[in-house]
Amino acid sequence: MSHGLSPTGAKILDANDDGLVAGHPAALAKLLSDGLVVPHTADGGTHCMTQDGWMALDAWRKENPGRSTLTEAPGILRKLPGRQHEAVLTAARRPDQHIPRRDNRACRAGETWFRDSTLRKIAASGYAAIRPEPYDNGPVTWEKTGRPLYLTEDGRLYARQHGNIDVRRRRVVVIAGGEKKLPDPDVHEYGGPLPGYPAGELYIDDYHRSLRAASDALTDPALIFIASALHGLVPLDRRLYPYDVTLKDERAVTPETIRWHTARLGLDDADVIFLGGQDYAALLLPSVPHLHAPLAGGMGNQRGQCARARDEADVREAWWKKAATLHNEFAAR
Q: Has residue 97 got a pLDDT over 80?
């Protein structure tokens, strides 16, 4: 072969025409030994094409017109190299659509995780992106921050096309916190404070429990957040101490804090249902204008509606259909 490329080597270079190359270790070793790539990162996970590599790729493309992965059918996304492909599909199977790295709890739990070299390429591809933080001064990138990466719409499309995974926007449920809470946990035998309760266990009044039962039927626990008058939006596993604050108090969470919480959670890229009273809904709507709040009437009526959602799949799907419609309408503005 005048271009000096094996079929596997050609496929790897052709799929990485931004110059940063990742792929099967044995194939990369061959490309390295042939002088077509050089190491780019210390861990050896990513390489750069050399001038000889570019020349070999150009020659291969001229000898194989129509075989390039860059000339796939319109609407079909280019298939990623092995680890990048696996990373996108792994995220598509997770409720939070997160691509875990070594410092993520998924790693500690023994689940699949990915090296920075893979995350770098995924971020550059546009199939995943970071979320904003309050202290950001203008647009920021994964390269500068190293923040968690989550699938974008393009990433979900890729997973549907190349992984046959029916992944869509996340279905997030926000529920109002309750007035009645577990008692203060007091102190341990040495006088220090005992840890607080997981937010998902702290609120014990019947109204909140009805909201929670409906939310458990609507989505995965990882996608349920509690709207706290003091803390804002909190996941079910965050530990909290009992508190006595309402939305009318000086210590109550501010709209600005809610705005940053919704940004950090990526609620602009999710279908969102809110279960609770109108005061909390009014607090959330400026930050989540596509919010669907299906409950109406007094607490008794709302508990009945929650019971129906808990027990009837048709009710749940009707709510999600409305949430998706609201998201699409807002996105089209």
A: yes
